Amino acid sequence: MLRRWVLASVASLPLAAAPLVAAGEIMSGSPLHAAAGDNDVATIKKLLAEDVEIDARDRNGATALLVAIHGNRIEAAKALIDAGADVNAKDKIEDSPYLHAGARGHLEILKMTLARGADLKSTNRYGGTALIPASERGHVETVRTLIEAGVDVDHVNKLGWTALLEAIILGNGGEPHQRIVDLLVKAGADVNLADGKGATPLQHARMRGYRAIEKLLTAADAR
């Protein structure tokens, strides 16, 4: 029921609230945005040598670095980050290079943003840290990396969910989500921190028949 509500809520968002830049698609951006989307490192370096604004925005508020990350353009992202692009610059829907890399599981780029001062407390339009969507989407190594970086494992988003709750509620109970639950529990996540309606992670796991996750939680004294 909760999953259907969330999916329906997201589907009902206006177009302006949905990601507007697909891989390689530039929305009225600069030549630097185009080069980033094309993974054209030579052109990126040439433009930067000509003193173009590295953090200029397209009409959606995205920097060239965010455009590169939308397409997982690793070489372009590296060139821009090495040149000083802002890894925390948010677009109009509150995505930043760091947040988007984390949510999408673009692990190599995520590590670059962490090394260049990613704001671990920054949140997306749902009020969630990078750890929460990474947990929901089953990005195991991304979750491990974010935990090791120091992201708050018990941060609660606007839906009233932590990373642990979202991994259970929006996950499928399979092996990646089991590993993520295990990582979160071992990192000290509060296994009894309930959602806004008072349902605990264990109750959600039992409701969905996620036996392996239920065992992980009960072993951690979940109620």
UniProtKB/TrEMBL annotation:
Keywords: ANK repeat, Repeat, Signal. The keyword Repeat applies. The keyword Secreted does not apply. Residues 1-22 form the signal peptide. The lineage of its organism: Bacteria, Pseudomonadati, Pseudomonadota, Alphaproteobacteria, Hyphomicrobiales. This is Ankyrin repeat domain-containing protein. ANK repeats lie at residues 27-59, 60-92, 126-158, 159-196. It comes from the Bacteria. PROSITE patterns: ANK_REP_REGION, ANK_REPEAT.
